[in-house]
Design a protein that fits this description.
The protein is α/β, with parallel strands linked by helices. The protein is built from 9 helices and 9 strands. Helix 2 (about 85-95) crosses helix 7 (about 220-230) and helix 7 (about 220-230) crosses helix 8 (about 240-250). The N and C termini lie far apart (about 65 Å).
């Protein structure tokens, strides 16, 4: 007699009368963290309880063969987030109304929302579909309206705002790229361009495409958020920066990766994506 196929484990978070903050555990990259915060905002709206984000550091990263990534541990191995990245992203995370605090996960036992279930236990069709939806697939009561922002900035004054006004912010990492696109056409807009990212990413881009453009220097990812929020629009590939533009609903154009299209454009206003050369040029002209 054949055994009945077991149902996948899908969790729900029950509403509690307490207003004590709850702990969520996360182990992956900064971009994944920004994406999953939509579900954390949904939890706050559902229960009135803020979230303590506990981030595991130096969790070994598993990318596709040949992938390059700038975040490593002391031994030079790729990891999802190291101490430096944690210190960069923490000011942004704790600035949000629904976040009580962000700390390092060291085995705390009071975890209520285990975000890592999407990689270990519950099938969410990873790496396909919208990255923001993965947590919601595992926790259906944490569904969030992705046409609405889930990262908000409260200050109208920030040192980076005058630097980015009317500028096009670019960010291109080395992973999850579309190799069919060339960016020579951007040279005619060079007076409007700013690059954000690592020094290596910046040099690879400007040297390949021959674009004389400055790199924006930031102290942390809260600075980065203000830059992306107040620029003319964002243009980049599937990365943390695009996830941040998506979370704030900054006008954005996404270079889509053919083999892992888990960053989804055309959600909300002024959100565009492209697979072909004529499309990116059209959208750049449109947003200018």
């Amino acid at each position: 007699m054949r055994k009945k196929k077991s149902e996948p484990e899908v969790k729900t978070i029950s509403i509690r009368t307490s207003h004590k903050p709850v702990r969520a555990k996360h182990s992956c990259n900064p971009g994944d963290l920004i994406a999953c915060m939509a579900a954390m905002k949904a939890y706050y709206e559902l229960t009135g309880r803020k979230v303590i984000m506990s981030q595991q550091l130096n969790f070994e990263a598993a990318y596709y063969p040949g992938a390059t990534h700038g975040t490593t541990n002391e031994e030079g191995k790729f990891v999802c987030m190291n101490e430096n990245m944690f210190n960069m992203i923490r000011p942004l995370v704790v600035s949000q109304e629904y976040i009580e605090d962000m700390d390092v996960y060291t085995g705390q036992q009071d975890v209520i929302i285990d975000i890592d279930t999407i990689r270990k236990k519950t099938f969410v069709n990873l790496p396909h579909g919208a990255i923001q939806s993965w947590v919601m697939m595992a926790y259906p009561d944490l569904a969030y309206n992705l046409t609405e922002p889930w990262i908000k900035l409260t200050s109208k004054k920030h040192p980076v705002i005058p630097e980015v006004k009317d500028k096009i912010i670019l960010n291109f990492t080395e992973r999850y790229r579309n190799g069919h696109i060339n960016y020579f056409f951007l040279r005619k807009y060079k007076h409007r361009l700013l690059f954000v990212g690592t020094e290596r990413e910046y040099l690879l881009f400007v040297n390949k495409w021959g674009i004389d453009m400055p790199k924006l220097e930031i102290d942390d990812f809260l600075d980065l958020a203000y830059a992306i929020k107040h620029c003319k629009f964002f243009l980049g590939n599937q990365s943390m920066c695009w996830n941040l533009a998506e979370a704030m609903k900054t006008p954005r154009i996404l270079e889509m990766c053919e083999y892992a299209p888990n960053c989804v454009p055309f959600i909300g206003e002024n959100s565009f994506g492209f697979l072909h050369q004529d499309a990116v040029q059209y959208y750049v002209d449109r947003l200018l």
